[in-house]
Design goal:
104 residues, rod-shaped
Length: 104
C-alpha cells in the first residue's frame, strides 16, 4: 500500500515539476527574444537620432550643446525602455506596486 501511495505522489510531483520547468523555459525564451528585439530597435533609433543631432552645425549646434540635448535624449530613450518593460511585466502579473502606509 505505501508503494502505491509513493508512486502516485512521485507521478504527481514529476508532472508538476515538468509543467513548471516548461513554463519557466517558455517565459525565459519569450523574454530573451523580446529583449533582443527591443534592444536592437532602441539602439537603431538612438543611433539615428544622435547621428542627426551631430549633423547640426553652426550656432544651432552650439546651442544644442549648451542645452545638453544629448543626455536629455538618452534619458528619454531610457524612460521609454523602462515604460515598455513595466508594461510588459505588469501584463503577465509579475510586477506588484509597492505601497507604504496602511491599506485602505
Amino acid at each position: 500500500m505505501p508503494a502505491l501511495w509513493l508512486s502516485s505522489l512521485a507521478g504527481m510531483l514529476i508532472s508538476l515539476v515538468s509543467s513548471l520547468i516548461g513554463r519557466v523555459l517558455l517565459a525565459l525564451g519569450i523574454g530573451a527574444v523580446s529583449y533582443i528585439g527591443i534592444s536592437a530597435v532602441i539602439s537603431q533609433l538612438s543611433g539615428i537620432a544622435f547621428a542627426n543631432l551631430g549633423a547640426v552645425g553652426g550656432p544651432a549646434g552650439q546651442l544644442l550643446g549648451l542645452l545638453n540635448l544629448s543626455p536629455a535624449m538618452s534619458m528619454l530613450f531610457s524612460a521609454g525602455v523602462i515604460k515598455m518593460t513595466l508594461q510588459g511585466l505588469s501584463a503577465g502579473g509579475s510586477v506588484y506596486r509597492w505601497q507604504q502606509g496602511m491599506p485602505s
